[in-house]
Design a protein that fits this description.
By secondary structure, the chain is of the alpha+beta class. The chain contains 13 helices and 27 strands. The longest helix is centred in the middle third of the chain and has 25 residues. It is globular and about 75 Å long.
Length: 624
């Protein structure tokens, strides 16, 4: 991390200097009002709290922070996002790491007993730099709340406030809130974001509803402390019995707690699971029968619930009706716009990615760097992702609830098919399969061959590098912070050492003379909007730092200090050359443009100076 840019400050570098109007009671006017302190709401609040000039507030009808959350699965892609926010290591320290998954089926000799028929690596090698982990949702909330408290905005949720209604006008949204004492509070917001769950009051105020159906299948879930001789109790496991249903077993953080999803009853059409009056004792009994011949003695139940499988999607994620041509003022994210079963482990992850997608766009508009039309892309991009999630969840849930096939070609599912499906969709469950379609924010693929390992529209897949100035081994993706900036990675062609006649220096001059001044406000650091980094093919001891183009050693801040963290080289000691790992054209090099939410926006030749200018000009406001 970097600090001391504007002068020496002792103490905690994560504690930002407070903005003049930071903290305090809920003001009458705000830039962004977030409704709901779930994963989506806190992701958005943490991101927007990084901008001192944006007045962001978040309200929650509950009296205080979440103490025990229902969600727990954290995908590899989400860990990359946590790295950008700065708390990935804290999550890794506390979490259970999902290293392997085992599969169990009825014993062929005695169908009343279960036997293991497969055990596989949970995430394929090289797919992501960080693990798939399990951690209580409430702890994720704690980490976000910590970021918010330390931010320049000193942002703390306003608890005990319930949304009663909203009215959209030409210059903003009038919001009516009600306190725990029944007193009404009015707030005028330029933008409102509903992150208030499946029963979203914001969604209802927009006249929208979740559309979809139920699978008419009841499941139970419980977090328990148990004594058992089941050998895979500390592995993620899928256990299918001959006639008692299925279990999905997820070990939890701490070394002892385990979550058990238990298949229960088929429901009649229009029947709600609450009508069955299912008890936790029934869940425990079902789990014990499915796990036979192994014992499963529950000593303590930390939490339990029953639910019915259903997949539902909102027809749009903002307040603009179909056919109406205007920019949105109100948005919904997370469970407010898509719901599904929990066994895919994607709900919390996709919800946070919704907010990460929206946050940088709101910041760009509110800071005057993009026109409000940019906000139209939120529904276009995230609704497609939610639709894919629901289709995956529908298939996976149906497979887990299907009876076992008794004879070849008969109805039902074979356990080997379940394992094969799990492996085939591993990239999806890791969160790395999302791909945004070509748009103003995502280029087309005519130059994709220059960087085959950075697919346009997909997340930026970091790789090991050595930072030139201090020889620090790191992942290139660690340069992607949640600060709203675009990144431009210039991969040098063969032999290019940054000298004045090379392609990389020529690119840097074009950026410095034309592209960057066009979009960077006067007086701001040259990298405050578009952060340019370079990756050379040379070993880090074979380049002279002082000979780099000035753009790669920019003077910044009040004191004009140099930024020495713009240039990188392959980590040859580790035998993992980023040019080979990511399929970079060594002869020609290339430019990889990365969005503030860590997705690859474009791949272009080093000489495509005009194309870079035109790409950013397609959605950014020119200040020149």
């Amino acid at each position: 991390m970097q600090f001391h840019l504007d002068g020496f400050r002792p103490g905690d570098p994560d504690l930002r200097e407070a903005a003049p109007n930071a903290g305090g009671p809920l003001p009458a006017e705000v830039d962004v009002l977030i409704v709901g302190c779930g994963p989506a709401g806190l992701t958005l609040a943490a991101q927007l709290s990084a901008f001192p000039e944006i007045v962001t507030r978040i309200v929650e009808q509950k009296p205080g922070p979440l103490q025990l959350g229902q969600a727990d699965g954290i995908a590899c892609r989400t860990m990359e996002m946590f790295q950008a926010f700065g708390f990935r290591e804290r999550v890794e320290r506390e979490a259970y790491w999902v290293n392997e998954t085992s599969f169990w089926k009825p014993d062929g000799a005695d169908a009343s007993r279960t036997v293991r028929h497969g055990r596989i690596q949970d995430v394929e090698d090289g797919l992501a730099p960080y693990p798939h982990v399990i951690l209580n949702q409430a702890r994720v909330h704690d980490f976000y709340l910590d970021i918010m408290r330390r931010s320049a905005r000193r942002l703390v949720p306003d608890y005990g406030l319930k949304l009663m209604g909203l009215q959209i006008g030409g210059d903003g949204v009038a919001v009516r809130l009600e306190g725990a004492d029944g007193a009404e509070v009015g707030v005028k917001a330029r933008y409102v974001v509903g992150c208030d769950g499946a029963r979203s009051a914001v969604r209802q105020a927009l006249g929208l509803s979740l559309q979809g159906d139920s699978a008419n299948q009841a499941w139970g879930v419980m977090d328990v402390l148990a004594v058992t001789d089941f050998p895979d109790i500390r592995l993620k496991a899928l256990i299918q019995s001959a006639g008692e249903g299925s279990i999905v077993l997820i070990p939890r953080e701490g070394g002892h707690l385990v979550r058990v999803y238990v298949e229960l009853d088929k429901l009649k059409a229009d029947e709600r699971v609450a009508a069955r009056n299912i008890t936790v004792e029934r869940l425990i009994g079902a789990a014990q029968r499915i796990l036979r011949p192994y014992a499963f003695e529950v000593k303590e139940v930390a939490w339990w619930s029953v639910y019915e499988i259903g997949q539902r999607l909102c027809p749009r994620f903002d307040d603009v009706p179909d056919g109406e041509d205007r920019d949105p003022r109100v948005f919904i994210a997370g469970d407010a716009c898509h719901t599904h079963s929990p066994k895919a482990g994607q709900g919390m992850n996709v919800s946070m990615q919704d907010a990460f997608n929206l946050g940088w766009k709101l910041a760009s508009v509110l800071r005057g760097r993009a026109a409000p039309a940019l906000l139209r892309s939120y529904t276009a991009e995230r609704q497609a992702v939610a639709r894919e999630l629901i289709e995956f969840d529908r298939e996976w849930a149906a497979m887990l609830s299907a009876p076992l096939r008794k004879e070849p070609g008969g109805p039902g599912v074979d356990p080997s098919e379940v394992q094969e499906y799990f492996v085939r969709h591993g990239r999806y469950t890791a969160g790395t399969a999302t791909r945004y379609a070509p748009s103003a924010l995502t280029g087309t693929g005519e130059h994709q061959a220059l960087a085959q390992g950075f697919p346009i529209g997909m997340r930026f897949h970091g790789a090991p590098v050595i930072r030139l100035a201090d020889a620090k081994p790191m992942l290139l993706g660690e340069a992607l912070e949640a600060d709203g900036r675009w990144r431009l990675f210039a991969f040098a062609g063969r032999g290019d050492d940054g000298g004045p006649e090379g392609g990389l220096a020529t690119l840097c001059r074009a950026l410095s003379d034309d592209v960057l001044p066009r979009f960077t406000p006067a007086g701001d650091d040259i990298d405050s909007v578009i952060d340019v980094r370079a990756v050379f093919q040379h070993g880090h001891r074979d380049l002279a730092l002082g000979a780099l183009p000035p753009l790669l050693l920019p003077a910044k801040g009040r004191l004009g200090l140099r930024d020495y963290e713009k240039a990188f080289c392959p980590d040859l000691k580790a035998g993992a050359d980023i040019f080979d790992l990511r399929g970079i054209d060594r002869a020609r090099g290339c430019v990889v443009v990365v969005r503030p939410d860590q997705y690859v926006a474009h791949v272009l030749p080093l000489q495509a100076h005009g194309a870079l200018r035109d790409f950013f000009g397609g959605f950014m406001r020119s200040v020149a």
